[in-house]
């Protein structure tokens, strides 16, 4: 299990934060999360997201500054938190998401927003009986897919100041859960055991006929070191095929490199796509470069490394044309990221041709 004791500095900061809340210096109703994990645009709003809190509406000013408008609870339809990785179906314009509760059941709740951004009814996932670290998920035309890992969440650790909020459970078998996107309960949710599959980020999923789902995700080996010895964790990009009729699961590692934090052309979310752009590095999340993976050929087709002592963040695909749904080629666009030169102490915004980012 992950264990340890918070340092005295952490305890002092915690006490100081509690004191500021009690004295009225911090209003929890206005938010408490960092909202620094990802960005999403739906319901005509640009949102900054972090899974420990609700989304925050932000605006970009004419001067290029970013201003925070405020925390958004979807007109009091959503409480406490929401995933940092919602998925928008570009065909229906609906957005699918989930929230996680580390203490109270249901520990996972699935929901969606219609094309106008109006939240629909919650679907509690009661078949998860222990809070499990679920950071990301996927959608297809008919389904939503969740991956349970071997990391369980221990609220007691947080409340007692005992160490990390997650504990590694070696006897737990990871599994993938599949539920209809428009289900009203989890009564027909199907779970498939996938030993060793500890999924972190999920890049896409699609249906191959009526009986098979294909899932693209990174999986972590030595996941017990995720939060305190990240250099000992290796992330692999996998293609996972799940046969809904037979229950058989087939896994294929597409690259031996240490890959994480990638993106696809968002118009292909929930549909079969060919390319994914991944960050590569020895110590995630300090990315040393970007690679382009061809999911059809199941090979790496191009790469770019940033140079000595230069590290980047998450590579993001941006379509060349605004109406990217009509683009002739899936990779017709750019891959962008920020990189930092640790020797010269300079940062740059890098723009690469997505067809060949080398």
TrEMBL record:
GO terms for biological process: carotene catabolic process. The lineage of its organism: Eukaryota, Viridiplantae, Streptophyta, Embryophyta, Tracheophyta. The keyword Iron applies. It comes from Citrus sinensis (Sweet orange). Keywords: Dioxygenase, Iron, Metal-binding, Oxidoreductase. Its cofactor is Fe(2+). Fe cation binds at residues 85, 135, 201. This is Uncharacterized protein. Pfam families: RPE65 (PF03055). It comes from the Eukaryota.
